[in-house]
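Subgroup meeting minutes
Present: P.N., E.W., G.H.
Scribe: E.W.

1. P.N. recapped why we're keeping a running log of single-chain structure predictions: easier to compare across weeks, and new members can see raw inputs and outputs side by side.
2. G.H. added today's entry (159 aa).
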Amino acid sequence: MTRFLLPLAALAACSRPPAETSQPRGLQLERVTIETWHGPTLSASGTAARALITASGFSAEGARLTSATGVELDAAALEGENDLRHMSAAGGASVKTRDGCAGETKGRVDYAAPLVRAEGPVSGAGCGFELAGGGLTYDVSERHAEIEGPVRTRIEASR
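Output recorded in log:
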C-alpha cells in the first residue's frame, strides 16, 4: 500500500495549482449612468445595467443611449470606444428617432462615425413607412439609408 501512496503523493506535490480565472482589467460598474461630451457639448447620455470601462474602451450590458439629436439606442450588449465614435452591438439593437421612426435588427450592428452598418434582417416603421430588408447602411450625418435586398416596403401618404 505504501508503494502506491508514495508515488501518488509525489505526483500531487509536483502538480501545478489550478489556473486562476482571469478577470478583465478595468473598472467594473453596475447600474451605470453614461454621459459623453465633445468639448462643452453633451453628445450622448444613457444607462447600462453593467459596464466594464478600460483605457481603450467599454463593454456594457442592457445599454440604452440617447444622442444629442434625440436618437434612442437599445442593445443587450454594446462595446466600443469611450468617445462613442465607434461601437458594436453583436446581438443587434433597436433605435427610435424623435419624430417616431423606429428600426431594429437581431444581427450585428457596427457604428463608425458617421456610418451605421447592420448585418442580417432589418425592419423599420413610423414616419409614414414600413420596411424590411436584408441589411442596412445608414449615414447619420446625411440621414441617408441604403437597404439591402430583398426589400419589402409600404409607404403611406396623406393628402
